Amino acid sequence: MMKLSLLSRRQAAAAAVLASLLISGCAVEDPLAEKVNAGTNSYVAGDGSVAEYAAEIRGDTVRFSGQLFDGTTAANDDWAGQVTVLNVWYAACAPCRVEAPDLSALHAEFEPQGVKFYGINTRDEAPTAAAFERSFGIEYPSFKDKNGQILLALTDYVPPQAVPTTLVLDKEGRVAARILGIAEKSTLKAIIEDALAAPGPEKP
Amino acid sequence: MPRLGPTGMLRWAWRQLTSMKTALQLLLLLAVAAVPGSLFPQRPANPAVVTQYIQDNPGLGPWLDRFQLFDVYSSLWFSAIYLLLFVSLIGCVIPRAVQHWKALRSQPPRTPRRLSRLPEYGTMTVAADTDLTPGRAIEDAANVLRRRGYRVQLRDTGTDLPSVAAERGYLKEAGNLVFHTAMIGVLVSIAVGGMLGYRAQKLIIEGEGFTNAELGYDSFFPGTNFNPGALVPFSLTLNDFDVTFDRNPASYGNPIDFTADMTVQDSPSDTPRQETLRVNEPIGFGGTNVYLIGNGYAPEITVRDGEGNIALQGPVASLPTDATYNSTIVIKAPDARPDQLGFVGFFLPTAMVDEDGVAFGSDPDPYNPQLNLNSYTGDLGLDDGNAVSVYQLDTTELTQLNGRDMPDGGIVLGAYQTYELPDGKGSITFEGLKRYVALDIVYDPGKAGALVFTTLALFGLIITLTTARRRVWIRAGQHEDGRTMVEYGLLARGEDHSLAKEAIRIGSALTAHWNKANDQNRQATP
């Protein structure tokens, strides 16, 4: 039965045949597609591209909530007024393992200044995530987001299109920057410092 | 031979391109050009297989790649055929439509001088006592033809030899044009689907869920002009997945039914509902369809490291290699300390041992699930940032701990068993078993259009094939003895096997008409 269905998918693919034709005619260079084409990825990886959003054009305040690995529920409303760094990761994600020590170091550096770090784990069970955190000395908590609810909530603002993706939220909870792929330490540091330096929302 | 000159050459080329023959040849060529797509592995289907193929065929591979034989459907040459076909169809349809428009508004052609030269010809005479003048006869004939669906025009009505010219079957060309226009529509729809749509795959283990976001996919193939806003924010959870295997001796072990019991939500604000996903019965979310395309087992594994900590816990999907669901499995514990641990081997749903002591799977249902693994330690290759498939482990740089040829042997784990790795490197436990489904998620905005245009094309084709295009001329005159002579001729446009029948029908319709008229006359004049 499964084979049968594969065949019918193949017929659909034959239809897609024609589809891809026009496409190639006017195809633009697509680094993401190239990475996929390289055949080494089984998931979507980022290219390290950084997008910073000027304060005037930032979108709405991001709102999401979810369950942390320790079982408690957290919402970003809980720490409103603080700069937040969100990092999408999972343990077997190779680029995540490269940037993890830097994130850990930046967390240690900026936590005293009130910057909140949260991970969003897309694939792991708690013990696996804990092992990763042990390996890299990660001390900030992570959301368990295997079913993608938080990702979906974030999609309304700035979609995290790859693992890892790092988002920096300003003091008003708006997305100030998005890094797709490995977050370069100095870049992320500069973004956090900018967000810290900006005036916070006016207290009522 | 006269020289054509550049304009002449262009005109000639255009006429060649837009001829029906060329269009058909291009269509045929397109079908032939699609063949390599099923001979060689294709990147859009599975990039990893292509990479492997090129590695395995270092001589031929790069050349095939140069000619885009791994990307057939997006290759230059394939696109060229497609675009030429497109131009050819349009270039063919437009002039024909104009011509047809003119034909619709023009009158049937003039009556030939000698009707007897037409392929079908007949005469009849009407007795003198019926008072049927040639003029009346032609009017009657015109009515008969009109009733038979002809467009008619009376000619030479004031003269001794009035005639009627008639033509029918304009729908044939209309159907033809509908067919060709619809073919263009099909091509455009498919192209729209390819540009704005996407295709993606996701593997979901029982008890787990998935939300429709680019990041959530295992693989994602957007169209060139894909807009992420087109992702419908649905989510689904796989509650339970059932496979029923045939237990009849004749077809023992064949799968009968796959049912995935799912909880789905159209968007985060909608109330969750229950759905059953089956093969060829996709779940739809406003244009996005979720298909069940595969399934397998995901053994639940716990790996403890040399320091006694849990380095990995959770279900690990295995890939079935045959109908008995004997599967390959790769387990990576990159956070095991002091050394990373990796496992490569087989999962057998129902393990038996043959006379050589080799385990083999004998049933697709998990009656005696067993893991047969080799274990490795060392750098799993994840820490340098290069993405690698979760289903592959390059063991060349690793130190092997377990294996059939190793002093400690291979790891054989039955349900709930734990194996202690040599040298105190840790342990692995087979905690439980879950099934998973592989889903194909397809968004094709051109699908509705493709359906409509395919239906239209079929409709047009049926009309074209069932409509005959014919011309009829009927001329009447008076014989010296007072009888009215009527002659008629028929001409088919194109092949028409029933033209003779039509001639007979027209003849008998005229005879019947005048006989009836005669009867009425007789009744009127007793």
Summarize the structure.
The complex is a heterodimer of chains A (204) and B (526). By secondary structure, chain A is an alpha/beta fold. Chain A is 39% helix and 17% strand.
List keywords for this structure.
heterodimer; A: 204 residues; alpha/beta; Glutaredoxin; 2 domains; six-stranded mixed β-sheet; two-stranded antiparallel ribbon; 6 helices; 8 strands; 39% helix; B: 526 residues; alpha+beta; TATA-Binding Protein; 4 domains; seven-stranded antiparallel β-sheet; six-stranded antiparallel β-sheet; 10 helices; 24 strands; 31% helix; elongated
Q: What would you note in describing this structure?
A:
The complex is a heterodimer of chains A (204) and B (526). Chain A contains six helices and eight strands. By secondary structure, chain A is of the alpha/beta class. Chain A folds into two domains: 2-38, no CATH class; 50-197, Glutaredoxin. Chain A has a six-stranded mixed sheet with strand order 1-8-7-4-5-6, covered by helices on one side. Chain A is globular and about 40 Å long. Chain B has helices at 5-17, 20-33, 36-39, 47-56, 60-66, 76-105, 134-147, 170-196, 447-466, 499-524, and strands at residues 120-126, 151-155, 163-168, 198-205, 209-211, 219-222, 235-245, 255-265, 273-278, 283-285, 288-305, 310-315, 319-320, 327-333, 341-348, 351-353, 359-361, 370-377, 399-402, 411-414, 418-420, 426-443, 470-478, 484-492. In chain B, helix 2 (20-33) runs antiparallel to helix 6 (76-105), helix 4 (47-56) packs across helix 5 (60-66) and helix 7 (134-147) crosses helix 10. With 526 residues, chain B is of the alpha+beta class. In chain B, the strands form five sheets. In chain B, strands 4, 6, 10, 11, 12, 21 and 22 form a seven-stranded antiparallel sheet that branches. In chain B, strands 13, 14, 15, 18, 19 and 20 form a six-stranded antiparallel sheet that branches. Chain B starts with a helix and ends with a helix. Chain B has ten helices and 24 strands. Chain B has four domains: 13-93; 107-168 and 468-524, TATA-Binding Protein, CATH 3.30.310; 184-295 and 440-449, no CATH class; 296-434, no CATH class. Chains A and B meet through helix 1, helix 2, helix 3, helix 4 and helix 5 of A and helix 4, helix 6, helix 8, strand 5 and strand 6 of B.
